[in-house]
C-alpha cells in the first residue's frame, strides 16, 4: 500500500504520534535520529579462524525518515516515502563446518565436566558473571539504541529490557546463595548423612527469540552458565546485533571456551550440531515446529535435557457482570489491562492476550470502548515522543511480519469480520514501512485463521459468546496452554473457570493482563506452549541435576574424611554473598 505525503500526515496525526508544527517545521518529537553503526566484535567467541572473512549479511531495518522536515500543507501527492529502510550492521553467516568447529571447542571446554569453568566453585562462577554484568553496564546505551533500531522497541521498553535482564540475573545469584540445593546443608536420614547439590549438565545449546533478544535469552543462558555448563548461543536472525555488543564483556569476564556464538542460517548450522549427539541440553524459546525438528535430530533424545518456551494463544474472558452499571470502574480497569495485554510491544509477546471473548449483548459497547483506547495510542518510531510519552506502537521488525498480519486480517474480513478502528491494519510511511496501525477485528468466528493462530502482532480479535461454555471449550480444546485472563466479579463463574483451567493453563490471571512477572513465580505452560518451568529458582533446576554425596558413619572415620574433603573439593565449597565493590577490587 502506498500513501501520498498528505495521506501519510493524516494517518500520523489521527494516530497521535508524529506531529508537524503549524509553521511546517518539524516538532521536537519528529526529529530524525541517525542510525547506529554496529561494529564487528573483536574477538569473536570462540576464536573462529578468519571469521572476518566469512560472508557477512547486512542487517537492514525499518525505518529511517527520508524527509523528516517536509511541509504536509504544500507537498504534492507524489512526494516519496516518509520512511525508508536503512542498514545498521552486519552478521556473519556460519557454515556447517564452522558450526561443528564451535561445538568441538565447546566439548573441549567441557572436558567431561573437568574443564576450567565446570571445575570452578559456585562462588568463582558467581563473581565472574557479576563482573560480566559490570562490564556490560558500560554498553547499556549502545544496546538500548540497537534494540530500538533493529526490533522497533521504544526507548522506555528497551531500557526496561536491559535493566530487567540484570535484575533477573541478580535474583538468580541470590537464589544460589540462599538455596540449600546450591549452598549445601548436610542432613541425617537414619545412619546416613547426605548432602545434595546441583551439578552442571554439559554443553547447552541456547536459542533465543527476537522480541526479547537480551532478556529472554539471558533468562536461560545466565543460569546455565552459573551452574557450570558450557553454552553455545545461536544468535537470532532478527534481533541478533545486541549479542555482538556483549562479546567483549564476556571475553573480559569468563575463561576462554565458556561461551560460544554461532550466527547465520539456523537450518544450516543447528541440525548438524544436534545430529552429533554431543549437545547435552537444549534451551529453546520460539516455535514448536522448529523445536520438534531440532529434538528429533538428536540420536539419543532421552539424554537431551530440554527446556522450551513456545507459542501461546492466551485469551481474555469478560464475564457478563463486568458490564453491569455498578461495575463501571471495574470495566474501565479491565479495558486498560486489555489494551496493555494485547498491544504492549505491538502484541509481540508470548504472554500477550491474543483473543478476547465478550458476551454477545455487550460486544458492541466493548468494541467501541476498545476502539477509543486504541485510537489514543502513540504510533511512531521508537525514539518519538508525544507529550513525554514514547511511541506505543512501533514498526514491526520485518516486512514478513507485516505480510502475515495482512494475511490474517484479509482472511478474517473475507469471512465476515470488520476492521472497526479507522486505518486499522494500514501502514504509515509507504510500501517499505513496517509501521502498522493496530487492527480491531470484530466479530471473529471459529472459521477464521485469527481465531486459532497466534498473530504475534498488532491485531486484536474480538469473539462473542452467548454461553460461557463457548470460551471454556476453546480453552480446553486448544493447542496451547500458557495463560488466560478473566475479567469479572462473579465468584461462582470465576471459581468454575479456575477449576476447569487449572489443568489447562500455567497461570490464571484475575482482572489483569497475562504476564511473566514477578520472576519469583513459576512461569510455565501446558500442551504446545512449554516444556519446563522458568523462575529465578526453577530455571536453575532446568539446567542442572542433583548430585548426592552420602556416607554411613563408621566410628567417626567418615566424619573425619569429609572434614578434610570439604575443605579441598571445589564442588563442596560454600557460597557466600559478595558485593559488587568486592568483585571489582578482586579484578583490579
Automatic annotation (TrEMBL):
Gene Ontology molecular function, alphabetical: succinate-semialdehyde dehydrogenase (NAD+) activity
EC number: 1.2.1.24
The keyword Ligase is assigned to this record: no
Domain (Aldehyde dehydrogenase): residue spans on this chain: 86-544
Broad class of enzyme this protein falls into: oxidoreductase
Gene3D superfamilies associated with the record: Aldehyde Dehydrogenase, Chain A, domain 1, Aldehyde Dehydrogenase, Chain A, domain 2
Annotated Pfam families: Aldedh
Signal peptide residue numbers: 1-21
Keywords: Oxidoreductase, Signal
Name of the molecule in the record: Succinate-semialdehyde dehydrogenase, mitochondrial
Organism (species): Phaeodactylum tricornutum (Diatom)
Amino acid at each position: 500500500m502506498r500513501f501520498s505525503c498528505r495521506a501519510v500526515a493524516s494517518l500520523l496525526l489521527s494516530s497521535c504520534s508524529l506531529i508537524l508544527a503549524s509553521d511546517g517545521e518539524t516538532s521536537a518529537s519528529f526529529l530524525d535520529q541517525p542510525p547506529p553503526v554496529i561494529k564487528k566484535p573483536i574477538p569473536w567467541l570462540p576464536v573462529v579462524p578468519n571469521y572476518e572473512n566469512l560472508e557477512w549479511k547486512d542487517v537492514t531495518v525499518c525505518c529511517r525518515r527520508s524527509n523528516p522536515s517536509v511541509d504536509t500543507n504544500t507537498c504534492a501527492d507524489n512526494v516519496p516515502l516518509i520512511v525508508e529502510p536503512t542498514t545498521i550492521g552486519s552478521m556473519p553467516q556460519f557454515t556447517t563446518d564452522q558450526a561443528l568447529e564451535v561445538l568441538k571447542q565447546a566439548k573441549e571446554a567441557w572436558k567431561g565436566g573437568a574443564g576450567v569453568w565446570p571445575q570452578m566453585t559456585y562462588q568463582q562462577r558467581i563473581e565472574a558473571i557479576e563482573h560480566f554484568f559490570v562490564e556490560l553496564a558500560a554498553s547499556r546505551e549502545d544496546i538500548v539504541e540497537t534494540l530500538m533500531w533493529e526490533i522497533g522497541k521504544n526507548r522506555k521498553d528497551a531500557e526496561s529490557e536491559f535493566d530487567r535482564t540484570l535484575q533477573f540475573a541478580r535474583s538468580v545469584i541470590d537464589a544460589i546463595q540462599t538455596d540449600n540445593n546450591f549452598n549445601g546443608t548436610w542432613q541425617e536420614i537414619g545412619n546416613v548423612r547426605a548432602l545434595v547439590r546441583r551439578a552442571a549438565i554439559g554443553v547447552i545449546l541456547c536459542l533465543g527469540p527476537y522480541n526479547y533478544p537480551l532478556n529472554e535469552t539471558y533468562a536461560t543462558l545466565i543460569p546455565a552458565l552459573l551452574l557450570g555448563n558450557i553454552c553455545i548461543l545461536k544468535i537470532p536472525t532478527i534481533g541478533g546485533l545486541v549479542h555482538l555488543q556483549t562479546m567483549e564483556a564476556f571475553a573480559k569476564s569468563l575463561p576462554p571456551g565458556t561461551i560460544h556464538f554461532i550466527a547465520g542460517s539456523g537450518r544450516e548450522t543447528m541440525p548438524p550440531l544436534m545430529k552429533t549427539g554431543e549437545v547435552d541440553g537444549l534451551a529453546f524459546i520460539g516455535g514448536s515446529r522448529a523445536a520438534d525438528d531440532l529434538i528429533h535430530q538428536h540420536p539419543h533424545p532421552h539424554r537431551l535435557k530440554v527446556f522450551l518456551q513456545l507459542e501461546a494463544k492466551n485469551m481474555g474472558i469478560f464475564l457478563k457482570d463486568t458490564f453491569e452499571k455498578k461495575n463501571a470502574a471495574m470495566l474501565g480497569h479491565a479495558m486498560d489491562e486489555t489494551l496493555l495485554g494485547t498491544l504492549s510491544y505491538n502484541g509481540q509477546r508470548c504472554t500477550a492476550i491474543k483473543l478476547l471473548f465478550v458476551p454477545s449483548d455487550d460486544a458492541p459497547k466493548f468494541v467501541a470502548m476498545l476502539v477509543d483506547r486504541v485510537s489514543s495510542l502513540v504510533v511512531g518510531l521508537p525514539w518519538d515522543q508525544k507529550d513525554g510519552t514514547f511511541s506505543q506502537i512501533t514498526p514491526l521488525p520485518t516486512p514478513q511480519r507485516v505480510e502475515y498480519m495482512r494475511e490474517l486480517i484479509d482472511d478474517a474480513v473475507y469471512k465476515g469480520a470488520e476492521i472497526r478502528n479507522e486505518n486499522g491494519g494500514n501502514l504509515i510511511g509507504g510500501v517499505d514501512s513496517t509501521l502498522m496501525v493496530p487492527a480491531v477485528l470484530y466479530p471473529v468466528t471459529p472459521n477464521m485463521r485469527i481465531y486459532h493462530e497466534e498473530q504475534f502482532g498488532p491485531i486484536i480479535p474480538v469473539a462473542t459468546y452467548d454461553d460461557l461454555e463457548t470460551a471454556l471449550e476453546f480453552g480446553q480444546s486448544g493447542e496451547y496452554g500458557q495463560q488466560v485472563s478473566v475479567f469479572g466479579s462473579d465468584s461462582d463463574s470465576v471459581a468454575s473457570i479456575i477449576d476447569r483451567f487449572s489443568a489447562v493453563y500455567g497461570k490464571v490471571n484475575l482482572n489483569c493482563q497475562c504476564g511473566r512477572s514477578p520472576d519469583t513465580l513459576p512461569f510455565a505452560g501446558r500442551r504446545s506452549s512449554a516444556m519446563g518451568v522458568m523462575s529465578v529458582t526453577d530455571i536453575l533446576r532446568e539446567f542442572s541435576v542433583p548430585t548426592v554425596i552420602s556416607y554411613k558413619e563408621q566410628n567417626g572415620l567418615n566424619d573425619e574424611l569429609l572434614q578434610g574433603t570439604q575443605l579441598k573439593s571445589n564442588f563442596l565449597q560454600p557460597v557466600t554473598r559478595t558485593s559488587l565493590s568486592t568483585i571489582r577490587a578482586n579484578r583490579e
